C-alpha cells in the first residue's frame, strides 16, 4: 500500500522517490483528525454506537499520535514504522465499523466512517515513514 511520488532531482539529473507528508505534518494531521472525529457526533448528529465509535477512534488516534516518535508527540515511545502499521490497521478496520457495530443503515454515520477511511489511507500512503529522511 505504498505510494511514491516522482520528481526530478536537478542536482544529479536522476529521479528520486519522495513522499510529500513529513512525520511532523502527519502528526499535525492526526491531531486535527482527533478534533474533527471527536466533534462528529455533535456536528453530524451521530448517536449510540456511531458516536461511541467516533469517540473511540478519536481517542485511539490521539493516543497513538501522543506516543509516536515525531515532533508533535508528548512521549516518543512508538517508532514511526509502528505508527505506520497502526494506521494501516485502522484503515482496514474503519470501513467495517458501521457493519460490525450495527449502524450501517445510518447514512451520515456510515459515510463519515467511509470518508475517514479514505482520508486515513491517503495520508498514510503519502507519509514519508523513513526515520532517516524524517530526521533530516
Question: What is the average of the pLDDT values?
Answer: 89
Content-based structural category = mainly alpha
CA radius of gyration: 17 Å
How much helix is in the residues?
Answer: 55-70%
Biggest sheet layout = 2 strands, antiparallel
Number of domains: 1
Number of helices: 6
Low-confidence parts: 1-11
Extended strand count: 2
What would you call the shape? elongated
Major β-sheet strand ordering:
1-2
Question: Can you characterise this structure?
Answer:
By secondary structure, the protein is mostly helical. The protein has one domain. It has 6 helices and 2 strands, in the order ββαααααα. A two-stranded antiparallel sheet has the order 1-2.
Features:
elongated; 2 strands; 6% strand; 136 residues; mainly alpha
In short:
This protein is mainly alpha-helical and 136 residues long.
Describe the SSE topology.
Blueprint: E1 5-8, E2 15-18, H1 23-44, H2 48-67, H3 80-93, H4 97-100, H5 107-125, H6 131-135
Antiparallel strand pairs: 1-2
Helix pairs in contact: 1-2, 1-5, 3-5
Amino acid at each position: 500500500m505504498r505510494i511514491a511520488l516522482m520528481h526530478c532531482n536537478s542536482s544529479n539529473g536522476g529521479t528520486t522517490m519522495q513522499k510529500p507528508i513529513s512525520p511532523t505534518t502527519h502528526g499535525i494531521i492526526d491531531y486535527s483528525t482527533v478534533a474533527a472525529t471527536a466533534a462528529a457526533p455533535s456536528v453530524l448528529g451521530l448517536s449510540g454506537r456511531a458516536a461511541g465509535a467516533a469517540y473511540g477512534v478519536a481517542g485511539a488516534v490521539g493516543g497513538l499520535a501522543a506516543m509516536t516518535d515525531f515532533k508533535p508527540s508528548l512521549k516518543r515511545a512508538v517508532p514511526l514504522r509502528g505508527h505506520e502499521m497502526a494506521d494501516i490497521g485502522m484503515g482496514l478496520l474503519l470501513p467495517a465499523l458501521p457493519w460490525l457495530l450495527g449502524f450501517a443503515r445510518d447514512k451520515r454515520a456510515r459515510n463519515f466512517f467511509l470518508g475517514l477511511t479514505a482520508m486515513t489511507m491517503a495520508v498514510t500512503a503519502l507519509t514519508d515513514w523513513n526515520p532517516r529522511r524524517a530526521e533530516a
